[in-house]
Amino acid sequence: MKPIIAPSVLSADFANLQRDVTMINESQADWFHVDIMDGVFVPNISFGLPVCAAINKHAKKPLDVHLMIVQPEKYIEAFKEAGAAYISVHAEACTHLHRVIQQIHAAGCKAGVAINPHTPVNVLENVLNDIDLVCIMSVNPGFGGQQFITRTYEKIKQLNKMREEAKANFLIEIDGGVSDKNAKQLLDLGANVLVAGNFVFNSKDPQATIASLKSLG
């Protein structure tokens, strides 16, 4: 199976956002990864509903919306309206995680759960068959361009084993520090979706960089 490549628009040029959206449309990328940050759950503020909707207006591929916010349950329907196909919430931000997963499905979206680098994968044990995606953060969330945390390899291995044992069908997504130096190993261990930000947008030829990741499957 070919990997799903999801360029992170957090690393795009916000002054030329339509240009970068067009680039992703014309590339071999599969999804747009859209990071929503509130300055509370993570120490940064990115963009919100209006920018998400603006991206969706021009995007020809699904929006993979990653909510790095407190009380995400308040905004599920709004992000659905803004164009989200996948909505991922953080396990650490949800007191009633199962209820929020149900809420995402009820809105007509695919449900994802993200976990921070310090969070063990076994917190997902009771929702494995209820989710469509697990986003493993391989950097501390909040800022692009951070160094990949090598403990991620072991977490993918553990989660892949849990997926097999539960006969679950969720995708494993890796978000942070993904590059040509680690992408193949991530996929070999069981990852299905690669989120790439700076590695794509800081390259001389972003479309060729996306194609190189896509060819690793």
UniProtKB/TrEMBL annotation:
Catalysed reaction equations from the record: D-ribulose 5-phosphate = D-xylulose 5-phosphate
Pathway terms, separated by semicolons: Carbohydrate degradation
Keyword rRNA processing: no
CDD domains: RPE
GO biological process: pentose catabolic process; pentose-phosphate shunt
Name of the top EC class for this enzyme: isomerase
Annotated active site: D35, D175
UniProt GO MF annotations: D-ribulose-phosphate 3-epimerase activity; metal ion binding
Domain of life: Bacteria
Cofactors required: Mn(2+); a divalent metal cation; Fe(2+); Co(2+)
Protein keywords: Carbohydrate metabolism, Cobalt, Isomerase, Manganese, Metal-binding, Zinc
Enzyme Commission number(s) from the entry: 5.1.3.1
PROSITE patterns: RIBUL_P_3_EPIMER_1, RIBUL_P_3_EPIMER_2
Keyword rRNA processing: no
Family recorded in the similarity comment: Belongs to the ribulose-phosphate 3-epimerase family.
NCBIfam families, sorted: PRK05581.1-4, rpe
Protein task: Catalyzes the reversible epimerization of D-ribulose 5-phosphate to D-xylulose 5-phosphate.
Name of the protein: Ribulose-phosphate 3-epimerase
UniProt organism field: Sporocytophaga myxococcoides
